[in-house]
C-alpha cells in the first residue's frame, strides 16, 4: 500500500486550496446572506453559479469520476482514481458549498456514476451530459416511509410493465435534492417482479422530475434544518408512466446497480466528513486560543490539550482507514472492497460526530448557535450514521465477512 499523493493530486490540491481561500471561504458568508434575504428558500443563491463558473475556469470540475475499470472511459473528466480523489474530496468537505461548486456533490456524483456505468446511450446523452456540465441536478429515491428501508428488499414501490411503458406507484421519502428547482431527473428503485428471487425483484428506473403523477407531500427537516435549496422530499408516485427504455441495465438488476452506486457514494461521504472534522478542529483551536477563563487561556488547559490530542489521533486514524478503502476500491473493485467500505461507513461518521461535538463544546454556547457552523456540522455528521444505511447494517457486514474468513 502506497498512500503517497500522485503528482496530479499534488497539483490539484495546490489549485484547490487556492480556490478555497480566494473563492469558497469568502462565498460562504455571501451564500448565507443571500439565503437569509431570499423570498423563496427553494431557489439557488446566485453566488453558487459564480463559484461554479470560477471552478470550471480553474480546472476544478468533476474530479470525482474514476475511469471505467473495463473501458477506461472517463466521460471527458480527469478520471482520478479513488485514492487520488480522496485528499481532494477531504478539502471540499471543509466547506458546505465547495462540493456543489466543483460539481462533486451528492447525490449527483452517485447518479452520474450510475449513468456512466449502466446508462444507455440515450440516458448518457439526455441526463449524464447536462449533469456533468452542472446544468441540472438529480436525486435518488430508494427509501420508503412504510418499510424498514435499510433492508432494500423491503422496498414496495411498484414498477409495472404496461405495453411500451412502465407504470410506477408508491411513496418514497428522504429523496435528497428534490427541493432544488434544477433537479430534473430521479433514479428510482422499485419492485418490478415480486415473484422473483429476493435479489432479483428490484429494478432501477430513470424518471424525469416533471413526469405526470409525481407529487411532493412535504420536505423533511434534519434536526430542524430544512437543507434548502437542496432538501429531502417525501414523494408520491401515482401512476407515473415512463417509456420502457427508462429501465437501467434491465429488469431485476436493481441490487447489482445499488452495489456499484453505493460504494463510491459512501467513500465520498467519509472523505468529506474528514474535511468537516479538520475544519471544526481548526476552529476550536483558534477559539480556545482566543479566550481566557479562570486566569488561563482555554487552549492551555490540560483537558483542552487532551481533547485536541485525541481528536488529532482520531482524525488521522479515520483518514488512513479511508485511504486504505480507496486503495482497495482502485485495486480490487468496489465489490471486493466492500468490507473496507463498510468499515469506514461505520468508523468515520462516528469519529467525526464525536470530534465536532467536542469542538462545539470548546466554543461554549456559541457552538450551538447559528453564529458558528458547528451546530449544522454536528447535525449533518450525525445523519451520516443513517444515510446510505445505518451503522448496524454495515457493522453486521464487517463482522460477517470477517467471520467468513475462518473455518
Ligand atoms: C439526511 C439523510 C439523507 C438521506 N438521503 C437519501 C436519499 O437521497 N435517497 C434515499 O433513498 N434515502 C436517503 N436517506 C435514507 C437512508 O438511506 C435510510 O434512512 C436508511 O437506509 C435507513 O432506512 P430506514 O430509515 O427505513 O430505517 P429502518 O430500516 O427502519 O431501520 C431503523 C433502525 O433499525 C436498526 N437496524 C436496521 N437494520 C439492522 C440490522 N441489520 N441490525 C441491527 N439493527 C438494525 C438501526 O438502528 C436502524 O437505524 C437519507 C437519510 C438521511 C437521514
From TrEMBL:
Residues 139-239 form the Acyl-CoA oxidase/dehydrogenase middle domain. Its cofactor is FAD. Residues 252-400 form the Acyl-CoA dehydrogenase/oxidase C-terminal domain. GO terms for cellular component: cytoplasm. InterPro entries: Acyl-CoA_dehydrogenase (IPR050741), Acyl-CoA_Oxase/DH_mid-dom (IPR006091), Acyl-CoA_Oxase/DH_mid-dom_sf (IPR046373), AcylCo_DH-like_C (IPR036250), AcylCo_DH/oxidase_C (IPR009075), AcylCoA_DH/ox_N (IPR013786), AcylCoA_DH/ox_N_sf (IPR037069), AcylCoA_DH/oxidase_NM_dom_sf (IPR009100). One of its GO terms (biological process) is fatty acid beta-oxidation using acyl-CoA dehydrogenase. Residues 7-135 form the Acyl-CoA dehydrogenase/oxidase N-terminal domain. Keywords: FAD, Flavoprotein, Oxidoreductase. The keyword Electron transport does not apply. One of its GO terms (molecular function) is acyl-CoA dehydrogenase activity. It comes from the Bacteria. The keyword Disulfide bond does not apply. Homodimer. Belongs to the acyl-CoA dehydrogenase family. This is Acyl-CoA dehydrogenase.
